[in-house]
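Standup notes
- HV: blocked on the assembly model, inputs below
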Amino acid sequence: MRTGIATVCLSGTLKEKMQACAIAGFDGIEIFEQDLVTSPLSPEDVRTMAADLGLTLDLYQPFRDFDSVNEDLLPGNLRRAEAKFKLMSRLGMDTMLACTNVATATIDDDDLRAEQLSRLAELAGNYGVKVAYEALAWGKYVNDYEHAHRLVKAVDHPNLGTCLDSFHILSRDWDTAPIEGINPAKIFFVQVADAPKLSLDVLSWSRHYRVFPGEGQFELAKFMGHVVRAGYAGPVSLEVFNDVFRQSDVERTAVDAMRSLIWLEEQSAQWLDIHPRVGNSSGTPAVSGAAVRRRYPMELATLPKVAEPAGFNFAEVRAGDAAGLEKVLGQLGFEFNGRHRTKAVQLWTMGHARVIINEEPASGASGPLSVAPTIAALGFDVDSPLLASARAQQLKAPAVPRKSQANEEVFQGFAAPDSTEIFLCQGNPDGTAAWTSEFGDEQATHQFPVALGASGGGSGSPTTGAVIDHVNLAQPWQHFDEAVLFYTSALALQPQPYAEVPSPTGLVRSQVMLTEDRAVRLVLNLAPLLQQDGGQQDSRYGGSSRLRRTYQEHIAFAVADLVATAKECRDRGLEFLHIPDNYYEDLDARFALEPDFLATLRELNLLYDRDADGEFLHFYTATVGSVFFEMVERRGAYDGYGAPNAPVRHAVQYDHLHQMKRSR
Amino acid sequence: MRTGIATVCLSGTLKEKMQACAIAGFDGIEIFEQDLVTSPLSPEDVRTMAADLGLTLDLYQPFRDFDSVNEDLLPGNLRRAEAKFKLMSRLGMDTMLACTNVATATIDDDDLRAEQLSRLAELAGNYGVKVAYEALAWGKYVNDYEHAHRLVKAVDHPNLGTCLDSFHILSRDWDTAPIEGINPAKIFFVQVADAPKLSLDVLSWSRHYRVFPGEGQFELAKFMGHVVRAGYAGPVSLEVFNDVFRQSDVERTAVDAMRSLIWLEEQSAQWLDIHPRVGNSSGTPAVSGAAVRRRYPMELATLPKVAEPAGFNFAEVRAGDAAGLEKVLGQLGFEFNGRHRTKAVQLWTMGHARVIINEEPASGASGPLSVAPTIAALGFDVDSPLLASARAQQLKAPAVPRKSQANEEVFQGFAAPDSTEIFLCQGNPDGTAAWTSEFGDEQATHQFPVALGASGGGSGSPTTGAVIDHVNLAQPWQHFDEAVLFYTSALALQPQPYAEVPSPTGLVRSQVMLTEDRAVRLVLNLAPLLQQDGGQQDSRYGGSSRLRRTYQEHIAFAVADLVATAKECRDRGLEFLHIPDNYYEDLDARFALEPDFLATLRELNLLYDRDADGEFLHFYTATVGSVFFEMVERRGAYDGYGAPNAPVRHAVQYDHLHQMKRSR
């Protein structure tokens, strides 16, 4: 698939945008007119620079408000077009996007439109330009791609064809199947954009909320499947107007964009594989799989397929001083499994939940090591770490070097958009992990009053079989959509509809990503802006630690009996997050709980939720640095995270933070 | 008018919210349930604290999803209600908001609903609680206030009445006139919120985009007029769900909120004055003016009325080092009018445009004086500075002390939300200002090669009669809505529909505020987030200078002949903002300009725009600190600001800034 992107998707100057597109590996670009008009580069400069960067200039856009006008407006419109055709010849470009008229159209007459478009095509022909006519979703008279293409057919001129834009088609819920009936030679261009489903007017939706494929809710693989079946083999180019991308670092956004096309290419191939065409006009037989894909002119590259991860292998917290973490993990019932043979790293386990405390300086960190503990890395169990890593790298995930000695397991790792390091591990079927044998030394034995080597509590312990239930990571606002696509494409997690949780400093957008079997649940939280400290995220670690300093993240562990666990934790002196009395009164008003049970919840600072599927009990620890821990018990088929209780947690944590500030 | 506000409007803990409401001067508050549930304060604590703060607890809210349910759900709903009634008695509260059912309603039957509401009212009566029933705009069966009130009438119970919420009524475009027919004793509560007109689903619109009265587009004065005429005299309470206010400083937002009610009170009185009731059921004769207002139970306080300002009196730029400003003002054709007798302040004039360069340290500045020049103050000509200042202070504008000596004019000043100091001045009818006589000294004469005391150029100069055309100020994102209300209410400027301008670092929201006669045009720009450096704006100057360091602001001067002015400026060596060639080619494609004229534009770096009303010529200077200047010529009745050219300006300025960074 030939990949492309419109310059309007990115921030910066035209020069910066072109360089970023080349670095990200795009084949070509669309020149958005305003980017050229505001640029000090001459058209010839742009042409040379594109050639030097290995980018083709695939589309000049947009040309607006041409058709359906009174005859007295036509000469001016043709004059405008001619000026652009001349400009395009200086740029060495041959395709121009013409949108259906939204502003100056006054005559709703297809014959007149065809005649006017015919004059445009004739003029374009004089300059060797192909005009790709696109139905805007809010076009005054023409807003449906089938209508636009009927006009193209009526004009029947070699210099007039169709441009298909997924946003304009899918935002209006137009049927995409008829795309297959379009003569591929008349599809001059294909633009793709995804978008969340919003009940906003389509113009505002289009101008502000488009996202890259995989970051929204449109059925883009199906759209692309029809385009491929039509026989189109030209560029597939991103045109995404997005308020956030316009502000984000241009090179990062270009990579995010490229990743979305690589992912879309794979998804389109899969759609074609499972939707074999059952007979058609060209008599293609109903054959499924890659064989049939090869019959289409567009070549679709695919990636190594990976299954969804089987679970969390470990979670790693980085800390300048591990004392606070050691204390709280011990109180939670974790056992110290020793220090790493060669690194300043500790292993703590509870059942099958493994937490690493890393006191090494961050790799690539430029400044001093942040003292406050932060969640630094997550390990996931996958079938084949090498294959999954190859996939992630093909998806342009930045690899993370993990220093390793001889005889030690080498982790395949890469950096998530929020700078968390993601490691691909191979867990054992019994829930253990081979690398844990690298831990354990005599010195440590004497430091902690717990036995070495034991994996989990005794069989009578309520935490036997404990696992990491979910991990909650704060996301910088500029990279939230990127993170969703990243975990979707590189780790095969599925995004769920997001929730919004009120906190004392603003609404927190909470996006769950999970596996089908719920073995992995990752919660991405978009914190309020004032907790993001400017949101500048240039350096991998510097940025991340700045964000996390003000917004707390956590790791949640699931146990079989939360009440018993909480009692043991209390007896070990754990500092629970204190839940206000008012919460329990409201809980009682809502759920009419048994008085004894309610008393137990209150006494132990447990939170409670219930829905049609089951019940949820949980508690939180106090925060260490920017990290805290949660213990949960899921009863029945409860599939949530106690969202109704999240505002209580936020309010209490906010109060603690402010008390600490005041007491300083 | 009794003023109130729901705690959900504000950020922080319940305690912080209550304190901020008391400081802002509210009479009472609505307790939003979640704020109580998440609070460590007991209900008794809240009651005591409110009493100590002089706040009444006017409404407990919300109670959801009660009516229209299957009979088997009713006992649970009554149980929930009873728990809340008991809680309210501990809080000492007597009014609860009950919303129409959106979630669990299954039976659309007004008789059943009335019967169920009757049981709720009966139960409420046992606890002395009044239930205010409110139709949510998205209520499943009841979403119209008239429908809700028909149910109240059908139940006919002293403990059930109506709650009117302007958002739920105006968002659905329900007619507000029938409010007057409601028995005032049955209007238990009135909530007000404004909102921009959006074509969003009403639930999202309501939950995220409500604003305080005067910050949106609802006809709230009319709504309130009907409420007053109905005979209601209870609290008028703000209920505003807004993503930004939830994140903003709680005390500032509370003051912003209070200002909106003070303004609404005045606007409502004016609406009543100009909409006398022509006969009605109670036989009130058609009398207009304040006399008729006194017949209504609700007392409406009004403010000193002020006319819109007659013009800009001056603009003031603060700078640690004035050299750069002196140079560019001189090149623009400004004349140095000397130094102030007692302060490190210079006066520069061109025609009637006056620019002050202030080298004094900022009043109240805690840190060192920011060296980079920033726009620090604006003077406006008003009829009566004392009256206008009294009005601003009643609108809770923070007064700004301006140090003054004997025999000097005392400026009445206050701080705008973005920290700009606003001074109210008395201009002379001939366009001069008396205070300018405080300037001028011998020493200065020798420093600049221009004559002293001359007001404007000679009569042959193209800048004779020059005035400040507009001033463009950057606004921090947390205070944009506040700024709109501030200038509307305190300075009688009128907000225009806003525009969005693309820049290399994101979209810039541009909001024009102006007087009817266009003598004052103020442009408020909401800069992209990454230019706001975290947006923390705690200290008046610190915050403001941080913002302005990264986003450039400007002062524009209007002259009669821009081409001649530009030539003179060029001859004086002015550094123009360089406009790329591509711009002029596009200009020609769009407007088909005379070749000579186009060549002149290009040669002088002039920008051009044209619309049905007239033409606009303008140019920009290079930036000094965070300030640049613009010269404009308006031809015909052109009323805009060359918005199509703004992206060019942004792109070129961005490029310069980055070149400077690279060359460091």
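- HV (later): unblocked. Residues 442-457, 533-549 of chain B have pLDDT under 50 and may be disordered. The first strand of chain B starts at residue 2 and ends at 6.
- Next: hand off to the docking folks.
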